[in-house]
Amino acid sequence: xxxxxxxxxxxxxxxxxxxxxxxxxxxxxxxxxxxxxxxxxxxxxxxxxxxxxxxxxxxxxxxxxxxxxxxxxxxxxxxxxxxxxxxxxxxxxxxxxxxxxxxxxxxxxxxxxxxxxxxxxxxxxxxxxxxxxxxxxxxxxxxxxxxxxxxxxxxxxxxxxxxxxxxxxxxxxxxxxxxxxxxxxxxxxxxxxxxxxxxxxxxxxxxxxxxxxxxxxxxxxxxxxxxxxxxxxxxxxxxxxxxxxxxxxxxxxxxxxxxx
Length: 260
Known about the structure:
Elements: H1 34-48, H2 50-57, H3 71-81, H4 90-131, H5 135-141, H6 147-158, H7 166-174, H8 183-199, H9 206-217, H10 224-228, H11 239-257
Helix pairs in contact: 1-2, 2-4, 3-4, 4-6, 7-8
């Protein structure tokens, strides 16, 4: 919580603020200066670390734990011995057991590292938010733990801006592309953008949702095989959840076997 209009490093966050950044933001007093504060707070957080702002907007969310399934190891061994997954030889089965154990250990380690990294970034983002608030706004979110939840609460209390035009929300969804992120994080972002679109009254069929998802991942070289083998009945109400879960599993498998 800040007491002055100047934004200066708090001891809790000083270690993550680059020395080269000399910026000031007004302290949020309430509805009277929300628009000015929000614009400059966005600039500051994006300048320091773009992920902070993505946390506040929901574009960067807590990682979904990757599920360890034996199929990953079965597929890898089957490819090595040119067998179908149902025809593993005794020698291949022994290798499968070793590989399955190793993959399980690696996935658990990756899950732990991903969650620890997320927790650290969210704590830092929340520290910046707390420091840029006057007493009254700070008291409004004092008992709200998560950074995004706290930001949304402040927005609901003090933002009087009109909702974003539906054309802007539509373009945000159309322009989403699978780049430089995990498959699980991209799916979460894609579904969030779709939810924002539908919450404004836009009706989209499963065919449109599937077509746009294919377009969003098509430029990623590692998705070519997934797209070529994708078969989905859009008349099935669970079609897209099937596509999303299989996409995450396919990309996780690919990252483990062929790290980028």
